[in-house]
Design brief:
Blueprint lengths: L2 H13 L26 H12 L6 E5 L6 H14 L3 E6 L13 H12 L4 H10 L8 H14 L10 E6 L7 H12 L9 E7 L3 H8 L6 E5 L5 H22 L9 H11 L3 H12 L5 H11 L7 H15 L7 H20 L6 H8 L6 H4 L7 E2 L9 E2 L3 H7 L13 H17 L10 H5 L4 H107 L7 H5 L14 H15 L1 H5 L1 H7 L1 H4 L1 H7 L8 H15 L3 H12 L4 H21 L9 H20 L2 H13 L6 H13 L6 H14 L3 H9 L8
Parallel strand pairs: 1-4, 1-5, 2-3, 3-4
Antiparallel strand pairs: 6-7
Length: 798
């Protein structure tokens, strides 16, 4: 076989190996990624170069650092230096969500292919290994490493003037499988046992658990670790200051800003706010640079918006991301337009951060169904955090993986308008992929003929990739759903029992409701009856009200007639008749019976009224019994209701032919005011005055208290006796009063007789007879007799 044939066979063997074309440090996708500026990171780079060129036995240099501290920039710088010196064996830059760069399946084969081209003397040995094991790419990573790297390099005796062969591995923590990460670390540490040329492995990553545990199994003699964020802050700040001055000066010249812009004071503030994070400085610079004529305004927004005082670098990085995202909400947007913009932004950014393969703008538009506007118009203000190539066929990438961490972490991305729910995005993408694939099939299930001739580009690969991610998310969700289903099944069982109990209660309540409905109907009927009765009573009330008004009017008339009544025409013996004749008033009722009924009617109707009689009498003490009580030394003025009614009944039956009418009048008056009470009370009080006065034994000879008492109240007594007293009581009481006045007190005696005669009604002839009787037995003075004659009273019957 000729040399040319052999060479072609060897080349063909290399091409059979799976290769991640974007893994090298100088891949096309990284042509704009920065390297360390001159005079920056000098101490660290000198230390690394001293290790690669030296004779130290430690074959692995692990550069550990937090996100955004510049690890990848340093890795590119190291790779560039050794590439130019032809001592770079291979490089592999892991990228989460970067397709083949997000896992280790093509890690060893990609390293082998690069070794074959970068170190020509090793190509033959590598191709021999492929020829020996054509299916080597399907073997484990450990077998691939032994067959394609360790054996070919061990077969080399020398590398010429190259002291060491360098492998650069960046961002190992972004490999999606922790087990693969530990295996890769073990494989890289085996370089120390190579019998051929010296191999140095420069490795960068975040200090994640999987990385740290992987190095626990590697002897300390085979590796060293340098913690990037432990470098003195003054050194890091000085490097960031150089970076900002250099890049902002370029932006100032491009936008024709004043010389010296933005000034050392602004740069110092930016350095302070970067808090040791190169990614903060780089992101802030891109944000300012892409503002073009508004670069100065954007710089002000970066300075003014960062108000964090805590020392956590992550907080400052989060704020710069949030500032850029919010700047995409333009002032001219309405509230509805702003919400729509944020919704589209979440959809696009969510797709970029969850897919394993980065997609080009064309593929994204097909996948997401963005037809009204292009992907670029949605993310046109986010070039500071997204790498958007001018070629629409090339994938859109994140500038830094920390953006993915920020967007997917709700505690960091605190603005809900931009936070991405990973599960929700996976679900939406799965639905969209299924809908798109379905659209390429006919109704009968056969593949469209035109589909055969179409190119299966990265759009369909991404679509399947999205389905794979969604499947993983759905598998995890399925486990949760199974647990929830188990819990819900138990709850269903409990609820079923509760339903059974509630069903029984419902039956009971239904029966109770039926009974209540029946009662309701009965009560409804009763209500109607009572309503009718109420209407009848209402009508009766109106009638009685009218009758009452008529009776009141009649009463007023009767009252006036009664007070004006002239009884002179009545014969004297008519009033002296001890008992009026019985009259039949119909229905077998006699006059006496009617009187009894009326009296008892008064007792029944005004029982409460008469209970107040004693209290009323006491309130009238000055009028009724106060003075008499003083004269007698105490007197009882209690008037019992029964005594009053019995006395009233007896008086009416014996002495008043019209007693029934008077009782009716009294009954009516009691219902109107206190006049009747006062009248009856006063009548009995007058009788008590006279009796108590006599019993007291008081005399008025000394013109003392008795004289004053009689003189003051004599007229009231006499008028009361004349108006209210019955004939027999009047005579007796008058006699009592006269007995209280001795003959030697002629002025008082005459005054008493004068008032008694002049104020009497002419109808009271019986009292005149009583006075004459008293005069016959006790003697009246001649003056009194003349007075009586002057009053035309001489025709009295004696």
């Amino acid at each position: 076989m000729s040399m040319e044939t052999t060479s072609q066979a060897q080349e063909g063997g290399l091409e059979k190996l799976p290769y991640a074309a974007e893994a090298p440090f100088n891949a096309y996708i990284r042509q704009h990624d920065p390297e360390c500026l001159p005079s920056t990171r000098t101490a660290l780079l000198d230390d690394i170069y001293a290790w690669t060129d030296g004779h130290d036995e430690q074959c692995v240099y692990w550069l550990s650092g937090l996100a955004g501290t510049g690890k990848s920039t340093i890795a590119r710088t190291v790779a560039r230096r050794h590439y130019e010196r032809r001592s770079l064996g291979a490089s592999f830059f892991f990228t989460r969500g970067g397709g083949d760069l997000g896992h280790a399946r093509k890690f060893v084969t990609s390293i082998a292919v690069q070794l074959a081209y970068n170190v020509p003397v090793s190509r033959q040995h590598i191709c021999d290994g492929i020829a020996e094991r054509p299916d080597i790419s399907n073997s484990t990573l450990r077998d691939q490493w032994q067959q394609l790297v360790i054996r070919p390099l061990s077969a080399l005796n020398t590398l010429g003037n190259i002291t060491a062969l360098v492998l650069v591995i960046d961002a190992l923590d972004e490999c999606d499988d922790d087990d693969d990460i530990r295996i890769v670390i073990e494989l890289l540490a085996e370089a120390q046992a190579l019998s051929g040329p010296k191999v140095r492995v420069f490795l960068t990553s975040r200090p994640e658990v999987a990385i740290r545990h992987g190095f626990y199994d590697v002897p300390d003699t085979s590796h060293q670790c340098f913690v990037l964020h432990h470098i003195a802050s003054s050194v890091v700040d000085a490097d960031i200051e150089l970076f900002l001055k250099h890049n902002l000066a370029i932006t100032g010249r491009e936008q024709r800003l004043p010389a010296g812009w933005p000034g050392s004071e602004i740069v110092a503030k930016m350095v302070q706010r970067s808090n040791g994070l190169f990614i903060w400085a780089a992101t802030a610079h891109r944000f300012v640079q892409q503002g073009r004529r508004f670069a100065a305004r954007r710089l002000e927004s970066v300075i003014e918006s960062d108000t964090i005082t805590q020392a956590e670098p992550e907080k400052h990085l989060d704020l710069i991301y949030m500032t850029i995202l919010r700047s995409s909400l333009r002032p001219e947007y309405s509230e509805a337009e702003g919400e729509e913009h944020c919704k589209k932004l979440r959809y696009v950014l969510g797709t970029l951060v969850v897919l394993k393969e980065p997609l080009a703008a064309e593929a994204l538009e097909k996948l997401l169904g963005v037809v009204e506007e292009g992907i670029e118009s949605i993310i046109e203000d986010l070039h500071a955090i997204l790498d958007v190539p001018g070629d629409r066929s090339r994938p859109i990438r994140l500038h830094h993986p920390s953006l993915r961490d920020f967007l997917l972490n709700e505690s960091r991305c605190t603005d809900a308008r931009f936070w991405i729910d990973e599960a929700q995005i996976h679900t939406a993408l799965a639905s969209r992929c299924i809908a798109l694939m379905t659209s390429y099939f006919k109704q009968n299930g056969r593949v469209d003929d035109q589909m055969i001739n179409r190119r299966i580009d990265n759009f369909f690969l991404a679509m399947m990739n999205g389905l794979g991610d969604a499947q993983m998310s759905l598998e995890e969700g399925n486990k949760v759903l199974k647990e929830k289903h188990k819990v819900l099944k138990e709850r269903h069982k409990v609820l079923k029992e509760r339903h059974k109990v509630l069903k029984g209660r419902h039956k009971v309540l239904k029966e109770e409701h039926k009974v209540l409905e029946e009662k309701h109907e009965v009560l409804k009927e009763k209500h109607e009856v009572l309503k009718e009765k109420h209407e009848v009573l209402k009508e009766k009330h109106e009638v009685l009200k009218e009758e009452k008004m008529v009776l009141e009017a009649d009463f007023v008339k009767l009252k006036e007639a009664y007070h004006a009544e002239d009884l002179s025409g009545y014969p004297r013996d008519k009033y002296m008749n001890p008992k009026p004749p019985e009259r039949d008033l119909g229905a077998g009722k006699s006059y006496t019976r009617i009187i009894h009924e009326r009296v008892h009617s008064v007792r029944h109707a005004y029982g409460e009224f008469f209970k107040q009689l004693e209290a009323f009498a006491k309130r009238r003490v000055d009028v009724s019994g106060g003075r008499a009580d003083l004269l007698k030394g105490g007197a009882d003025f209690t008037i019992e209701d029964e005594d009053f009614l019995e006395g009233l009944e007896e008086s009416l039956l014996k002495h008043h032919p019209h007693g029934l009418d008077r009782l009716i009048e009294l009954e009516s008056r009691v219902s109107h005011d206190d006049e009747a009470l006062y009248s009856v009370e006063l009548r009995y009080a007058v009788s008590n005055w006279a009796r108590h006065f006599k019993k007291s034994g008081a005399r008025s000879v000394d013109y003392g208290e008795a004289h004053v008492f009689l003189e003051k109240y004599l007229l009231d007594w006499q008028l009361t006796l004349i108006h209210y007293g019955n004939f027999s009581e009047e005579a007796g009481n008058t006699k009592y009063l006269i007995d209280c006045v001795p003959e030697d007190n002629a002025p008082l005696f005459n005054a008493f007789l004068r008032e008694n005669i002049t104020e009497r009604s002419k109808a009271r002839w019986e009292s005149m007879g009583t006075l004459l009787y008293l005069w016959h037995n006790g003697g009246f003075c001649k003056e009194m007799w003349e007075l009586m004659r002057a009053k035309s009273l001489s025709d009295c019957k004696f």
